[in-house]
Amino acid sequence: VINFNPGPAGLPLPALERAREELLDFQGSGMSIMEHSHRGKEYESVHNEAISLLTELLGIPDTHQVLFLTGGASQQFAQVPMNFLPPGASADYLMTGVWSEKAYDEAVLVGQARIAATTVLPDKRYVRVPRQDELQLDPKAAYVHITSNNTIYGTQWHRWPEVGDVPLVADMSSDFLWKPTDVSRFAFLYAGAQKNLGPSGVLIAVARKDFIARGRKDIPKIFRYSTHAENNSLYNTPPTLAIYLCRNVLAWARQVGGLGQLERWNREKGELLYGALDKHAGFYHAPVERESRSYMNVVFKLPTPELDDQFVAQAKKAGMVGLKGYRTMGGIRASIYNAVTVDNVRVLVSFMEEFVRKNG
Ligand code: PLP
């Protein structure tokens, strides 16, 4: 099947095939990688290889460190303010969708947070990210939080906000590794693995070392980022199998040419899909404003909800799954993460053309 699910999403086939080959006997050890101790040399070499592949692919500078964490992005919504929002401080949140709302809701439970911009519409939807001149930033904020790609509404930041000297924190769950990214702009970025990088169960953070060192020390040790940083993400038992699979995906990404190549493919995929939507704008309605269109989640609607349902059902018969829009949104959402190929998207585009011919 061609998997257009929003996450957990498909993984590149070579990464899964490698896992299948190694599943029962990891490098002649007679056991699966998931049966190895996280303190043994076999697992540690996988762990460190995943970190070094990510460091190489993203060009992570020495000022920053990779962390493997658990609890998903949702836990970071709470853990970020627990670490970086001490009493008396305030954080700025830029609201671009459901996930930024959830992040903000957790922050106000922990400390003081402000909405420094929002593009919410009266009907609660979002169809763009804010422009720089709409940001009302507090120059004294403890940090500014953004959601780089809005999985549900299909919007994406294509220019990072200018936030002066205030640390920038980003939830990159749904577009991490979609293209080369200057991570030095971020004090802390985080992403659940289950879209572009691996299976669910592990979260990747890239953090500025001095920023996490400044984090609060009066919270439980397990929630301090500094604890995980000081222990190379081996303070407690990490999700070893998930990290092993991320290693496979990262090795695949390097082998196909790195993030520059992934970006070329992703742009081609996005242009193919948006091209089809624009060509048939009288039939397919793509609500997102052009400059905010996401290259990861492409959302659109057909003329009626009945046609939406038929589209999803017929696509499934043709081998394409995961196209139903988010439950509160309806419509269609094609999630075209790194593991979806340009050819996969061509199949969807031909299906869309055929669908208009029959129903338009
Ligand atoms: N942030 C974004 C942008 C997401 O797309 C999601 C899930 O789809 C989350 C956060 C929540 O992630 P998790 O379920 O790993 O907590």
From TrEMBL:
Coiled coil: none annotated. Residues 2-347 form the Aminotransferase class V domain. One of its GO terms (molecular function) is O-phospho-L-serine:2-oxoglutarate aminotransferase activity. This is Phosphoserine aminotransferase. Its cofactor is pyridoxal 5'-phosphate. It catalyses: 4-(phosphooxy)-L-threonine + 2-oxoglutarate = (R)-3-hydroxy-2-oxo-4-phosphooxybutanoate + L-glutamate; O-phospho-L-serine + 2-oxoglutarate = 3-phosphooxypyruvate + L-glutamate. Pathway: Amino-acid biosynthesis; L-serine biosynthesis; L-serine from 3-phospho-D-glycerate: step 2/3; Cofactor biosynthesis; pyridoxine 5'-phosphate biosynthesis; pyridoxine 5'-phosphate from D-erythrose 4-phosphate: step 3/5. Its EC number is 2.6.1.52. Gene3D superfamilies: Aspartate Aminotransferase, domain 1 (3.90.1150.10), Type I PLP-dependent aspartate aminotransferase-like (Major domain) (3.40.640.10). Binds 1 pyridoxal phosphate per subunit. It is an enzyme of class 2 (transferase). It comes from Archangium lansingense. The keyword Amino-acid biosynthesis applies. The lineage of its organism: Bacteria, Pseudomonadati, Myxococcota, Myxococcia, Myxococcales. Pyridoxal 5'-phosphate binds at residues 73-74, 99, 151, 171, 194, 236-237. Keywords: Amino-acid biosynthesis, Aminotransferase, Cytoplasm, Pyridoxal phosphate, Pyridoxine biosynthesis, Serine biosynthesis, Transferase. L-glutamate binds at residue 39.
